Amino acid sequence: MFLCECGGVLLVKNIYAYPSGLTALEKLNYQRNCTVECVQCGKKKENQSFDSEE
Ligand SMILES: [Zn+2]
After folding, report:
1. Which of 5, 13, 18, 25 is 20 to 30 A from 48 in CA distance terms?
2. 3-state SS string over the chain?
3. How far, in Å, from the CA of 54 to the mean position of ligand 1?
4. pLDDT per residue over 3-33, tens digit each?
5. Span from the CA of 30 to the centroid of ligand 1 (angstroms)
């Protein structure tokens, strides 16, 4: 889960698509990014890592 600096929860709004031409294995290892938006202050953040375990 993502948290905004204001303490609000960041919801995933848009997950960037994989580049075309990746194999299934490459997709498993590919770090997708996403756009998230805070439900509390409405702030958006681009290029957040979607697949990391952080
Ligand atoms: Zn916020």
Report:
1. 25
2. CEECCCCCEEEEEEECCCCCCCCHHHHHHCCCEEEEEECCCCCEEEEEECCCCC
3. 19
4. 999 999 999 999 999 999 999 999 999 989 9
5. 28
Where exactly are the structural domains of the chain? 2-49
Does the reported pTM lie above 0.90? no
| Rounded-to-integer distance, Cα 26 and Cα 54, Å | 21
Predicted pLDDT at 50: 82
Neighbours of ion ligand 1 (CB under 5 A): 4, 6, 8, 38, 40-41, 43
